[in-house]
Amino acid sequence: MSSITPAELALFLTALVAAMVNGALGYGFSSITVPVALGFVANRVLNPALVLLEVVLNLVSLFLNRRALPAVWRRMLPLIGGLVPGVLLGGVFLTVVAAVALKAATYAVLLPLILLQAAGVRWPIRDERTVGVPFGLGLGVLYSTTTISGPPLALLLNNQGLAQDEFRAAIALIRVAESSLTLVTYLFLGFYGAPSLGLFWLLLPAVALGLPLGRLLLRRVSKEAFRRLCMGVDAALVTVGLGVALQQLGWVDRAVSYAVSAAIGGFLVGSAWQRFLLLRKSQVASS
């Protein structure tokens, strides 16, 4: 039996932390896993493995939040309808776009979404039916090319007046739909090979362990404090990843890339930690 490599250990630990975040918040697995994992594997290997993991993860989440489904499933139908063409279009993009360019695009799209979410930006949408289909289309493209959809989805649903259990049920329902559709699309396109399946089996135990740990952690820490800290750290990881990808494309100098990424990443982590401490302090004062 071969020993685990440093890269495999890093991927396992990242997936463990990401699964804990997902268990606590209901989303965040790919948003945390992808920035780190892209430093070790290409999108064409990573995406199929993560989609398989998320089918399992999202089905478990849907089962745990099943009691709130009757209150939200009809409202989510327009969005789910838009997912179908979006996932198919994203699968085509994945076959024709160069790996490094796709990595840079992934980071560039992900960073502002995470920053908006970490900042607590909210804008209620009154006509959900009109917005649902085009939003689902864009979400499907984003998910099938990057396996990421939590930040924009949370931005939308956080503004719609859902109770906490309804919010988690709605996210689980949409993510079951998008991950299942993407799994079928990837199978049709022949994306599943030995590297992706090997990565899936490496990360599956981390997901199985991290989910219940995340639910336990949420009982001891304020959900809002935990969410903001996670998103701040995630934004820092994405910033560093974007700098590295741009350097690989030859668009920026390596020294400049690392210096700017380190400065921005340090600022984001520091800001997130400060907000975390303030929220913890207010939580203790009110108890």
Calculate the mean pLDDT score and round it.
80
- Fraction of residues in helix: over 70%
The number of distinct helices, counting runs of at least 4 residues, comes to: 11
What is the C-alpha radius of gyration, as a whole number of Å? 18 Å
Outline the low-pLDDT stretches.
none
* Count of domain modules: 1
Q: State the end-to-end distance.
A: 52 Å
Q: Major β-sheet, in short? A: none
Helix-strand pattern? HHHHHHHHHHH
Q: How many E-type strands?
A: 0
Structural class assignment: mainly alpha
Q: Per DSSP, what share of the residues sits in E-state strands of 2 or more residues? A: under 5%
User: What's the shape?
Assistant: globular
Structural description of this entry:
Keywords: Cell membrane, Membrane, Transmembrane, Transmembrane helix, Transport. It is a multi-pass membrane protein. It is found in: Cell membrane. It is a single chain. This protein has 11 helices and no strands. It is mainly α and 287 residues long. It has one domain (6-217). The termini are far apart.
Give a quick rundown of the structure.
By secondary structure, this protein is mainly alpha-helical. It has helices at 6-25, 29-37, 43-64, 69-96, 99-118, 128-146, 150-157, 164-189, 194-218, 223-248, 254-286. The longest helix is centred in the last third of the chain and has 33 residues, at 254-286.
